[in-house]
Amino acid sequence: MEEPLYHMDRYHPELIVTRPKSRKNVRPSPSKNPIVVDGNNVAYSGDNASMYNIKLARISFIEKGFDPIIVISSALFHAIDDKDELKRFYNMGWVKVADDQESDDVEIIEQGMRYQCRIVSNDRYSEYREIYAGRFDFYKLVRFAFAEGRFILEEF
């Protein structure tokens, strides 16, 4: 018997994806250079939540040899401009949805700790610095921008 993959089935029954009980993670461990991406922060770089921004960021990371771990909140499913494409990314395992019981910021930091990698976000996570002091190096935060149709990362 298979069980629902994420808690998302309560809020988005159309997104139900199943897995065998023996598999613990939807997303396999990154095979390349992992990098955690604040998907909400990327999507909202502009006036509205844009799936184009997420796609452009993902492509940019892959071209640079990174394996992006894009973390989003479940609320983004309601706000994004292309729900079908976000659903496809979710079903492909290209985005990870943070648990509704905790902030997507917490999930982003914990993924950064898990894979010991950088986090791409324009958020400075100031409210979490004391909580995660000594466990996560906040110098691993990388800012980004969109300019002339390109996704640009700060040097690191």
Any overview of this molecule?
This protein is α/β, with parallel strands linked by helices and 156 residues long. It contains 5 helices and 9 strands. The protein has helices at residues 39-43, 51-63, 76-79, 83-92, 104-115, and strands spanning 2-4, 18-20, 33-38, 66-72, 95-97, 119-120, 141-142, 144-147, 150-153. Strands 5-4-3-6-7 form a 5-stranded parallel sheet, with helices on both faces. A two-stranded antiparallel ribbon has the order 1-2. Strands 8-9 form a two-stranded antiparallel sheet. The longest helix has 13 residues, at 51-63. It is globular, with a radius of gyration of 15 Å. 29% of the residues are buried.
Q: How many domains, in number, for the residues?
A: 1
Beta-sheet strand percentage? 15-25%
Helix count equals 5
Q: Class, according to the CATH hierarchy?
A: Alpha Beta
Using the alpha-carbon principal axes, give the shape.
globular
List keywords for this structure.
5 helices, globular, 156 residues, two-stranded antiparallel ribbon, alpha/beta, 9 strands, Rossmann fold
